[in-house]
Amino acid sequence: MKLKALSSIPSSGWPTIPEQALTPGCGKMASLDRVKVLVLGDSGVGKSSLVHLLCQNQVLGNPSWTVGCSVDVRVHDYKEGTPEEKTYYIELWDVGGSVGSASSVKSTRAVFYNSVNGIILVHDLTNKKSSQNLYRWSLEALNRDLVPTGVLVTNGDYDREQFADNQIPLLVIGTKLDQIHETKRHEVLTRTAFLAEDFNAEEINLDCTNPRYLAAGSSNAVKLSRFFDKVM
């Protein structure tokens, strides 16, 4: 599958159709249906680098902290190669902040959680706490965060029954795979497999500085395409 992407990072935090999509000759692109996918996780786990890799198929040279929300756009061919094939814009909303933010910050962040079609939960494979915090991020985004601010939610507190009726597709992505020593890799990946199971989601583990992890035809690329198909 050819990767096509456009980027849009509006100062308001709300996405707009990229200017290049509105130029002559791009009418087809401007008329595409759009879906919204949140990209959530602790600051520093590599969300911006991941989104840049997904949308631009390039390594982000100088990643910086995301303030508020930045939006990038990827074009996805739904059910590619079948009679049902259709092309969509996928808006990837990289939401900044900390899971332990004050209530006022969380309230501001809540505006980004409206009309969501899918969620990518991102954690740092070298940071166990960032993995545990994904439970809290999911609860917050799905408006089921009943735990006081600053209290760490672990899988022991995570009730799968809360999400039995959840219709929003989830994907768990672990970053910085290259920084896991070979002697620790099996232990870490076993733990993250249970994490993905808790969310009833597929998982992808990668190094955002190496595009080969998402190369066309790879198992990761297949999982990603399958997730985006579910989002439609």
Give a structural overview.
- This protein is of the alpha/beta class and 232 residues long.
- It has one domain: P-loop containing nucleotide triphosphate hydrolases (Rossmann fold, 3-Layer(aba) Sandwich), CATH 3.40.50.
- 28% of the residues lie in helices and 21% in strands.
- The protein has six helices and seven strands.
- Strands 1-3-4-2-5-6-7 form a seven-stranded mixed beta sheet, with helices on both faces.
- It is globular, with a radius of gyration of 17 Å.
- Homodimer. Interacts with GPR89; the interaction stabilizes GPR89. Interacts with RAP1GDS1.
- It comes from Crocuta crocuta (Spotted hyena).
- Belongs to the small GTPase superfamily. Rab family.
- This is Rab-like protein 3.
- InterPro entries: P-loop_NTPase.
Gist of the model:
This is Rab-like protein 3. The chain is α/β, with parallel strands linked by helices. It has 6 helices and 7 strands.
Mean pLDDT: 82
CATH level-four homologous superfamily name = P-loop containing nucleotide triphosphate hydrolases
How many angstroms separate the termini?
17 Å
* Approximate shape: globular
Main sheet: strands, sense, barrel: 7 strands, mixed
The level of helicity is 25-40%
Q: Order of strands in the sheet with the most strands?
A: 1-3-4-2-5-6-7
Give helix and strand order, one letter per element, not per position. Answer: EHEHEEHEHEHEH
| CATH class call | Alpha Beta
Total strands: the figure is 7
Strand percentage:
15-25%
Number of domains as seen in the coordinates: 1
- Helical run tally: 6
Per CATH, what is the topology? Rossmann fold
Structural class: alpha/beta
Function: Required for KRAS signaling regulation and modulation of cell proliferation. Regulator of KRAS prenylation, and probably prenylation of other small GTPases. Required for lymphocyte development and function. Not required for myeloid cell development.
Protein name: Rab-like protein 3
Family: Belongs to the small GTPase superfamily. Rab family.
Pfam families: Roc (PF08477)
